[in-house]
Design brief:
Length: about 1000
């Protein structure tokens, strides 16, 4: 299963390399793809710790006559980072800011540093690196230099090439060199033979370069031979390496130009247009207003984004009506200049005849956005354009191959019209977004590249589109580079003479063709299916699934399609902000990120990792650190739900191989809890008697250094949750509240349930506890513990039992309210997938977290709770599932019902406890590391009188263990704030 392809190579690498050498099939498979349509299995992967490891890997590649390909975030969209030899990953360790010259606005960085991480380091100095690509949360500076990345603000700041001073690199023969301006004094200048070759080429081909290189800013195709023109100013040889896609040398450090941070008083004008062509025609008139960017959002993107929960509030805030296209025009000058620019933009739109309410061909206008928070949300929406486009739940997907063509602005409208006609002629349609300011629109026709006919269509469209681009004297590579998908077209684009010069450059730098072959020169055919993610013969052997995956296409009831939704764009690799992906933030390993898991699943179900890969130990290891936080369900714009996929695979594995004693002990908690509570004192000896905790670790795998939850003698009884109505409620109010007493609250934290009953009673609602139907009298359960262990059949039994018990309440107009996010939100997510049908859908629609219910009632004007003034500081940590289901605003709103309460929300990912994950001896270190990312440091830094709020039982346990401080459920905080004359 984990066999090595070349054992001798692996042994050689492990002797020489300090970092990790990955050679098993699973690991190599995770590095076989990038964000393109291509897939090539490498011979080995080196996770380099420093330049010496890069050099050692290159030496081994040269000795073994194997290709070597450098890789950062693995987000290249043209196949730049896939190859059959050695792949070197710099993102995990080679990610330091080496030198910073604040006054000179320069920095020296390692190639694996991520753009967003770099800018966080620069911000305290008032500086930033402005090549703001949409993948900034995972794109590395080395990868950006390799592709000559551009970003949305290139109109003002230029491309990567314009912002690189120097590159320290290792050449194919092992020599080190520093590429910079030729007149710079340097310890390691490039070899003189290379300098002479480049300068000679520049002189010899000067006329041809001037004639054939497109005169548009967004030209990133081929080698930058215009950098060595004799009369073009100072020659900077680093600019030859920029955009060379790792084919000329491998960078070990990059010296970059920094800029002052833009004004925080940015403004945005959202220009609405009734037709796509109208927006394209307007771009050339908007650019003279000197905006920092002009970004396109079309109707397709708006429509798809409306289906993604996290983007709906943003769209509602700035989209008016039903526009065919919106141009997002940003100004970032002084406040006075910005306001004048917005006024000029409004005047321009009026002069062009557009106005809201005009109707027909002139319906449109400008929505001004001055609020910083909304601007950031719109920027996130726009930056997610690719993933939003890829969120289509169908076999066909928008495919990247003509997406980066750039044409002069005066031709943009005609170009887009003609390209649309090409798509229609071939029976497809295109999706459009991105950089209208520089005539570079990301357009992807929808094709199913599993089909030979659609691959043939892809080639036909490419040939026609590139011919049209040449007609307009544009560039077929306008931002994302060449890779496999565009390199073969260089001779048609630049002419045979320039293409020959490209070959001469490659020969001079890399005569043996070791460095990332097949890119820029000597390229394979872009439609060679043997190099694709879905090669000839690709297929999936179906199996019977536990969950309903019918929303997606493909085998196993749609499970195949759900897995294949991952497009490898890597949004899950961000290191800060939101939640996804908490385990990756700790380990920084591709294995532990949502993308890596999804790729492994895809390779496994399609037989590319061996016949038994899906149920193998390697697959279990791949999923081991997934904490089922569900962040990917919300934050992955293509909706890859790894938590549910993990439950599916654990179910399949358990069905085939059985479940461990630990799995059963965790899963069956709801069934034995009533008996365990009666001997809770005896069980508590585990954490008191010397050696008892160590014994539990040996027998069941529970970490000895972690205390276990204590069963309470005063557990919550159903009758405690029975409260008659105490006030006349509005006619449209729910007829009653059914309190779902979850297993954790009932047996471990009954005070939270009692607090909720107290608050609901004070608000005047009728309350009753959800009770089991006829038959076994054990309490109802959401099945969460079964899902976590992979016992989906038992979870389905609990779901059916709960749905049956709650049906009469729902039919009577009541709502179900719960306190534990992981439990109540299971009603919305897993129940409909386990027990499909109207009853499950109705329960999902009528189930609320405690705070959601209060916030909704308050918004409807139906809530009246007698709170005292509470001038206290509260610091809130959100449960992962609250964040995944967009419930955090309701949690904040509920707390703000208390007058005088000063609320701060901790910016945190998963707390790290994640149910049983934090108790497991094998994962406790990662659990603690997750807590230490931001949550626990923030808690320790909080003043002693600050109230800590956390709704999750696990979250409160992690906070207690990691900081020694007590966190409370929001229900408790609200109950404490009730007026004293309210009954207990």
């Amino acid at each position: 299963m984990g066999e090595m392809l070349r054992p001798a190579l692996v042994q050689k690498l492990r002797r020489r390399v300090e970092g990790d050498v990955l050679a098993d099939l699973f690991s190599r498979g995770r590095y076989a793809t990038d964000a393109s349509i291509y897939q090539i299995m490498p011979a080995a992967v080196v996770v380099a710790r420093g330049a010496d490891d890069v050099a050692a890997a290159l030496d081994a590649a040269r000795e073994e006559r194997l290709p070597l390909t450098m890789r950062g975030g693995g987000t290249s969209q043209c196949g730049q980072t896939v190859n059959s030899g050695i792949v070197v990953d710099t993102s995990r360790h080679m990610n330091r800011l080496l030198e910073l010259d604040v006054e000179g606005r320069r920095a020296l960085v390692e190639p694996g540093i991520v753009l967003d991480d770099l800018n966080r380091l620069l911000k305290p100095h008032g500086l930033w690196f402005p090549v703001d690509v949409s993948t900034a949360s995972r794109a590395t500076i080395g990868g950006m230099a390799g592709n000559n990345s551009c970003g949305s603000r290139s109109l003002r700041y230029g491309t990567m090439r314009d912002n690189v001073f120097a590159i320290e690199a290792i050449l194919a023969d092992g020599r080190g060199a520093r590429f910079a301006e030729l007149d710079q004094s340097a310890l390691r200048e490039p070899p003189q033979d290379l300098v002479a070759t480049l300068l000679s080429l520049g002189r010899r081909e000067a006329d041809e370069i001037v004639a054939r290189f497109p005169s548009v800013q967004r030209r990133v195709g081929g080698y930058n031979l215009d950098a060595v023109l004799p009369d073009a100013g100072p020659v900077n040889l680093a600019h030859v390496l920029v955009g060379s896609e790792g084919t000329l040398g491998v960078s070990t450090a990059v010296e970059i130009r920094l800029w002052p941070l833009p004004s925080s008083d940015k403004v945005l004008g959202a220009c609405h247009f009734p037709t796509f062509r109208a927006a394209m025609e307007a771009a050339q008139h908007i650019v003279p207003l000197a905006p920092t960017s002009v970004e396109l959002v079309d109707a397709t993107m708006i429509g798809l984004a409306r289906q993604i929960e996290m983007f709906v509030p943003t769209l509602d805030a700035f989209v008016r009506g039903d526009p065919a296209a919106i141009l997002l025009v940003e100004f970032a000058d002084t406040p006075e200049e910005n306001e004048r620019s917005l006024e000029a933009l409004g005047d321009l739109m009026s002069d062009l005849g557009y106005g809201f309410g005009s109707g027909g061909a002139k319906e449109g206008g400008v929505v001004n956005v001055r609020e910083t928070k909304l601007q950031a949300a719109i920027a996130e929406l726009r930056a997610s354009g690719l993933n939003i486009m890829m969120s289509m739940k169908e076999e066909g997907k928008p495919v990247s191959f003509v997406e980066d063509c750039a044409v002069p602005l005066e031709h943009l409208a005609d170009y887009t019209d003609r390209l649309t006609a090409i798509f229609e002629r071939y029976g497809t349609r295109g999706t459009w977004y991105a950089h209208a300011s520089v005539g570079c629109l990301h357009v992807r026709p929808v094709l199913n590249v599993k089909l030979e006919k659609d691959v043939a269509t892809m080639r036909a469209i490419a040939e026609e589109a590139f011919a049209m681009v040449r007609e307009y004297k544009g560039s077929h590579s306008g931002e994302h580079g060449d890779g496999i998908v565009r390199s073969e077209f260089h001779e048609a684009m630049f002419g045979a003479r320039i293409a020959g010069a490209f070959g001469e450059v490659k020969q001079a730098f890399d005569p043996a063709g070791i460095l990332n072959p097949g890119k820029i020169v000597d390229a394979p055919k872009m439609d060679d299916r043997r190099l694709m993610r879905y090669p000839p013969g690709y297929g999936v052997k179906p199996f019977e699934t536990a969950f309903d995956w019918s929303a997606w296409p493909g085998a196993s009831g749609g499970f195949q399609g759900a897995v294949e939704m991952c497009n490898n764009n890597g949004a899950c690799r961000k290191s800060a902000g939101a939640v996804m992906c908490p385990s990756y933030r700790v380990t920084r390993q591709e294995k532990d990120v949502t993308r890596g898991r999804a790729n492994t699943l895809r390779l496994a179900i399609s037989g590319q990792l061996g016949p038994d890969a899906l149920l193998s130990d390697e697959m279990a290891e791949t999923l081991k650190l997934c904490v089922s936080c569900k962040a990917c369900r919300r934050e992955c714009p293509t909706g890859v739900d790894m938590a549910k996929m993990k439950s599916e695979i654990l179910h399949q594995r358990g069905k085939a191989k059985g479940f461990s004693a630990k799995d059963r002990l965790i899963a069956e908690l709801p069934r034995y809890a009533s008996k365990a509570a009666k001997i809770g004192g005896l069980l508590a000896l585990r954490d008191r008697l010397p050696g008892a905790a160590a014994l539990s670790q040996k027998l069941f795998g529970f970490a000895a250094e972690r205390s276990l939850p204590a069963f309470r003698k005063d557990w919550f009884r159903d009758e405690e949750g029975t409260v008659p109505p105490r006030a006349k409620l509005a006619d449209d109010a729910p007829t009653g509240v059914v309190l779902f007493a979850d297993t954790f609250g009932r047996w471990f934290d009954p005070q939270t349930l009692r607090a909720a009953v107290k608050v609901l009673a004070a608000a005047g609602y009728s309350v009753e506890t959800a009770s089991a139907p006829a038959g076994p009298k054990r309490p109802l359960c959401c099945g969460r513990t079964y899902l976590a262990s992979g016992m989906a059949d038992r979870a389905r039994e609990e779901a059916a039992r709960t749905i049956e018990a709650l049906r009469p309440h729902l039919e009577a107009g009541k709502v179900v309210v719960g306190l534990e996010p992981s439990c109540i939100l299971t009603f919305r997510d897993e129940f409909p997938a386990l027990v499909p049908g109207e009853d499950a859908r109705r329960l999902a629609a009528r189930s609320f977290l405690f705070e959601e219910f209060l916030a909704a009632e308050a918004k409807a004007g139906r809530l009246s709770i007698p709170f005292d003034e509470a001038p206290r500081k509260v610091m809130l940590h959100g449960h992962c599932h609250q964040k995944a289901f967009g419930a955090m605003p309701a949690v904040e709103a509920a707390l703000r019902l208390v007058p005088g309460l000063d609320l701060t929300v901790i910016e945190s990912s998963c707390c790290g406890m994640a149910g049983a994950f934090g108790y497991d001896a094998e994962t406790i270190d990662v659990s603690r590391a997750m807590g230490e990312l931001s949550l626990l440091p923030a808690v320790r830094a909080a003043p002693a009188d600050t109230i800590l709020a956390a709704d999750g039982t696990s979250c409160r346990h992690q906070i207690a263990d990691g900081s020694g401080r007590e966190a409370r459920h929001v229900a408790q905080i609200l109950a404490d704030a009730l007026r004293e004359d309210e009954p207990a």
